[in-house]
Write a structure and sequence with these properties.
Helix content: 55-70%
Radius of gyration: 22 Å
Order of helices and strands: HHHHHH
Number of helices: 6
Strand content: under 5%
């Protein structure tokens, strides 16, 4: 809690910073009870939470769009997907924050689960659509679809998210030259 501030003010100030500051920690926020806030204050709190969630979701979309467009290999795509989860993990942490009233927490968590599940489906559908638009590249897009399925963004919804699936092995032509000479001995 911030000295001299009400619990509501502490939440609002923290949310304003949290929207754009990935280092802003939510763990010290005080518990809020809906009955302790006027209906207007509770409505404003929900608005602040909604704006914060939207800002984090927008940052996730921007990051994912940029990093997946830059990904030239399946490995890079897997890394982009796994890296983008840090944005969504923040959203999950807010939605499940124990300081929020239980009814609000349930609504936020249900919405988060629904949105992240929908976003995963959209990513998979984008790969299918690309395969249909570029029949000559169906194998490429099929491999990309597999990477999206093996590195789901829905992993952030797990209580303890599992580690990302291991990225695909780099192409053989990138093998280290040292491996070619490993059978030789220098006397």
């Amino acid at each position: 809690m911030i000295p001299g501030r009400s619990d509501y003010e502490t939440w609002v100030l923290t949310l304003r910073d949290w929207r754009t500051n990935p280092q802003q920690d939510l763990t010290g926020l005080p518990a809020l009870a809906e009955e302790d806030l006027s209906p207007e204050a509770f409505s404003r709190l929900v608005d602040h939470i909604t704006e914060a969630i939207q800002a984090v979701t927008d940052a996730w979309q921007e990051n994912l769009s940029r990093t997946t467009q830059e990904a030239r290999t399946d490995f890079e795509l897997a890394r982009a997907l796994a890296g983008s989860r840090r944005y969504l993990r923040r959203r999950v942490e807010l939605a499940r924050h124990p300081g929020l009233p239980e009814a609000l927490r349930k609504v936020l968590d249900d919405g988060c689960t629904r949105d992240v599940t929908r976003m995963q489906g959209e990513l998979e559908q984008q790969m299918r659509d690309m395969a249909a638009q570029e029949p000559g590249q169906a194998t490429f897009w099929g491999a990309r679809l597999l990477v999206v399925k093996q590195n789901p963004i829905t992993a952030v919804l797990a209580a303890d998210p599992p580690p990302a699936a291991p990225p695909p092995a780099p192409p053989a032509h990138h093998a280290s030259p040292a491996n070619r000479w490993s059978h030789r001995r220098i006397l």
